[in-house]
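queue> holo job accepted (magnesium ion)
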Amino acid sequence: MRASDRRRAEGPEAPSTGGVNRPRPTRQLLEALPWLAAVGAYFAFPEYLPLLSGIAIAALFALSLDLIVGYAGVVTLGHAAFFGLGAYTAGLLAQQGWGEPISGLLAAGAAAALLGLLTAPLVLRAGELAGLMVTLGLSLMLYEAANKAAFVTGGADGLQGVEVWPLLGAFRFDLFGRTAYLYSLAVLFLLFVLARLLVASPFGLSLRGIRGNARRAAALGVPVKARLSAAYAIAAGYAGIAGALLAQTTQFVSLDALSFQRSAEGLLMLVLGGLGSLHGALLGAAAFTVAHHALSEASPQFWQFWLGIALVALALAGRGGIMGLLRRLGRGRG
Amino acid sequence: MSALSTHGLTRRFGGFVAVDGVDFTLAEGARHALIGPNGAGKTTFVNLLSGALPASGGTLSLFGEDITALPQHQRVRRGLARTFQVNQLFPELTPLEAVTMALAEREGAGATWWRPLRGMGPLREEAVQLLDTLRFDAADRGRLTSGLPYGRQRLLEIALALALRPRVLLLDEPAAGVPPAESREVMQAIAALPADVAVLLIEHDMDLVFRFAQRITVLAQGAVLAEGTPEEIARDPRVREAYLGEPAHG
Ligand SMILES: Nc1ncnc2c1ncn2[C@@H]1O[C@H](COP(=O)(O)OP(=O)(O)OP(=O)(O)O)[C@@H](O)[C@H]1O
Ligand SMILES: [Mg+2]
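queue> job finished
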């Protein structure tokens, strides 16, 4: 009942796009909180900057999945295909002598979005389960292709010799990961703002309509396939940019970027944070990455056990993940 | 010119013929009822008209234009709207959101991604107004559809179709299962439609049918059994036999 929770909190005539209807300043403060925390973390944990970059990149990937799974209702098990394609695109560009990061990012996003657009008809063609298999199949194919094409991708050894130029011609990607983190965070922020615009627009509303009842949406004149294809391509582009960020900030690309595990972890983050809420994607990615780090340090073999416990607990505690939990807490007070 | 017409329209499910070579014409501004026993193929016929199902054979045209090959959303854009016998709503959207979605689509703004809905005042005002005419108060408008009473949900079914400002409206048992008080509201909403909208009403309640229709088509086993004015249909012995369950020589 994630949506109904949200609605009740809003009151009857509140604007239609979710969020908690508090007095304006409080709400703005709440919305600024994750970003203030992210900037604060830069100063507070200088030794953890690579981990923080990892969170920002994971958050972007989770955001991408949220657009297509949480809002449009198209389930995928192969989203890593786009992440990996973006990573290899940006990585190869930099390796081949074009290390300018921002254009590399855009090229990676465009390549992934194009792949999304091309494969959307296959994914959307069949029923839900068949579509799921298509996403999985395509990502496995891409993984194997990258593995076999070792002369281009470096195969299992990964892509070496990625040299990224200074950001904006001024900021070198330093060893401590300062530039990398601020760069990742800035990209995440911009794309988050864009995603908020998307989900609050008529386009976003029609996606929610399709998820709720595609049959009726079509009867209202919504070109369902075209709308979903567009959403799929946008989400793919987001994932491609996330992959490119990883390639550029680590100056390395491995086959992991295309792995099934990445697709699955993205979904876990999303469920953890709360499906269909953009802040949930951020929180889920942060919680997952930090937990992964902490738990695998404590007991490397055992961390998935704890992850399992956390997931079961969240599922039992109530739907909506961390965001759902926070909302209920907020209501309890208010 | 007719609003909607079909020639030999046919739909098979495997070996079963649910709609069997139907020739049918809906005049402009018509108040036309489609009746027939359960399983006669009425809903399937509407699905063929709206494009929810592809036809197995035959053709159909909308205001003279052949739309046989057009997908559903293109037919909607040309002014063809429908409601569903079994509610097809958006459980996790509010009525206001659902109607706004229909309006945005009608205005060709459905794919607009660069403007928040909040900034699109006229759409919202029209949605409020439309729901207002169906007596949705502010609380009903803003509540999740899944939480609305059944009667309200039936009205929302109609509101969504009305939002498209159709030229041809197909109503598949709009009052089915609605308590009498609200069934009156449903029929009022239908009676209040602009006269130039052609309406095809499927309905089992003969009182409603005879009060509403200027023309009636009777469907049985997928084929047209009879067509005519209400008086003609009421007198027709074949209709009485097939539909009203009376022997032909009663
Ligand atoms: N998708 C389908 N697959 C197979 N058979 C179907 C399908 N849809 C409808 N039918 C069959 O087609 C026939 C006509 O069904 P339809 O729903 O069109 O009847 P109807 O006239 O609307 O009946 P009612 O008055 O009960 O609503 C029925 O025998 C039904 O079982
Ligand atoms: Mg029916």
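queue> Chain B touches chain A through 48 residues (CB under 8 Å).
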